[in-house]
Structure to design on (216 residues):
């Protein structure tokens, strides 16, 4: 786990985490296991985001949820924990490389039965979902070039008042000074969202920036 974020110095972040819902043993184990993975360890959803995902899913009374980019399972675990009884989470990833870590955690947390993991390009999984507005909550944290398409597929399936959350909308600050292809994609995405009359957007300075998009 990173000890600071773009915006918050390490001591203040420690204070923030110490005064929010603490990590439990299952979350600490996923963090530990993910930290040993070469090159991709930093992909993991931060603890403060996990707590927020659970709270949002619970507050929305979510029965139908989607996680785009489930990786080693942290965000899916967080959302699944916030679902109301009988709720289902469709977790998407393009590879099952990290499925063993995720499944072990979901099993240990007692939420494995609520999670339907679909290994395929997420856009295919989303297009195959029922077309009517039934989703309460979704979280998107996969390939940034796909964000606009994910938004289009998810928003028409989201019920009024439902929320779609997008991670990494700051691109480590590079939305102000783009360097990579993915930075340009997120800049375009952020611009489009704020002009879309179907939604209200609140961009939060959580971790690497997280936009909450509510269907009006
Ligand atoms: C930043 S990680 C997600 C972190 C995760 N939300 C967590 O809680 O730790 C991005 C994930 O998106 C997946 N991914 C990338 N491109 C994808 C695509 N086109 N379709 C589905 N998943 C994709 C990657 O395999 C990776 O597991």
């Amino acid at each position: 786990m990173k000890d600071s974020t773009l915006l918050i110095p390490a001591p203040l972040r420690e204070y923030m985490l110490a005064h929010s819902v603490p990590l439990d043993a299952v979350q600490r184990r996923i963090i530990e296991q993910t930290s040993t993975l070469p090159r991709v360890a930093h992909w993991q959803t931060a603890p403060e985001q996990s707590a927020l995902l659970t709270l949002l899913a619970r507050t929305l009374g979510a029965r139908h949820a989607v996680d785009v980019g489930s990786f080693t399972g942290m965000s899916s675990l967080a959302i699944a924990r916030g679902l109301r009884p009988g709720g289902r989470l469709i977790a998407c990833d393009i590879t099952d490389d990290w499925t063993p870590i995720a499944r072990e955690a979901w099993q240990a947390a007692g939420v494995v039965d609520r999670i339907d993991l679909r290994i395929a390009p997420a856009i295919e999984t989303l297009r195959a979902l029922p077309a009517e507005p039934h989703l309460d909550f979704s979280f998107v944290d996969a390939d940034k070039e796909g964000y606009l398409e994910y938004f289009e597929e998810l928003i028409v399936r989201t019920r009024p008042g439902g929320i779609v959350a997008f991670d990494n909308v700051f691109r480590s600050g590079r939305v102000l000074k783009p360097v990579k292809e993915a930075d340009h994609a997120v800049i375009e995405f952020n611009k489009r969202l704020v002009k879309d009359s179907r939604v209200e957007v609140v961009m939060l300075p959580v971790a690497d920036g997280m936009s909450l998009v509510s269907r009006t």
